[in-house]
Amino acid sequence: MATYVAFLRAINLGANRKFPKAAIVAATEAAGFGDVETYINTGNVRFGTAMRSRARIEAALEQAYRESQGFEVPTILFTPAELRRVADDADRLAADHAGRHYVSLLKDEPSAATARVLEERSTEQERVHVEGRAVHLLVGQSYLGASTNNVAVERLLGVATNRNVTVIRALREKWC
């Protein structure tokens, strides 16, 4: 059985998109996945499955979550090795950065040309680095007012969900 980590987009925001951790676990198990565990309320789920197709697993989870909660829950899947690489890249990129660091996790890997377009948005106050299906956003002391945020990432690169680097590192320690 292979292990995966799913990142759920846009849950527990406002009154209409509540998805408690216990409900996430129940819906994931109802979809046939085992050894399910969540971490904090931002939609981080680890589970095991015999399935191997990322697209099929994401589709099965999205259907289960829609049936459970009544709204769409875009789901972005990483293997533990992929997540470890994202966290390791974050460590490397943050070595000379004193501000905040966020990571937008992408459903699909962008082309090199599209990634370059996003990276060219970097300024002295904001650095953008695309590595595979992860976009590292290194900003000053506040994410508010940053011109490159998850909305900008999604407009250019498609479905993404954002986590701060502290969560990414914690998940590496916990699940990788």
Write a concise synopsis of the structure shown.
With 176 residues, this protein is an alpha+beta fold. It has six helices and eight strands; from the N terminus they run βαββαβαβαββαβα. The chain has helices spanning 21-30, 54-69, 80-94, 112-119, 150-157, 165-175, and strands at 2-8, 34-39, 44-49, 75-78, 100-106, 127-131, 134-139, 160-164.
Percent of residues in helical segments? 25-40%
Poorly predicted parts: none
The gross shape turns out to be globular
Distance between the termini: 15 Å
Oligomer designation? single chain
Strand content: 25-35%
Describe the largest sheet. Answer: 4 strands, antiparallel
Average of pLDDT: 93
User: Which sequence of SSEs, written as H and E, runs from N to C?
Assistant: EHEEHEHEHEEHEH
Strand order of the largest sheet: 2-3-1-4
Task: Explain how this protein is built.
The chain folds into two domains: 2-78, SP0830-like domains (Alpha-Beta Plaits); 80-175, no CATH class. The protein is built from six helices and eight strands; from the N terminus they run E-H-E-E-H-E-H-E-H-E-E-H-E-H. The protein has helices at 21-30, 54-69, 80-94, 112-119, 150-157, 165-175; strands at 2-8, 34-39, 44-49, 75-78, 100-106, 127-131, 134-139, 160-164. The strands form two sheets. A four-stranded antiparallel sheet has the order 2-3-1-4. Strands 6-7-5-8 form a four-stranded antiparallel sheet. The mean pLDDT is 93.
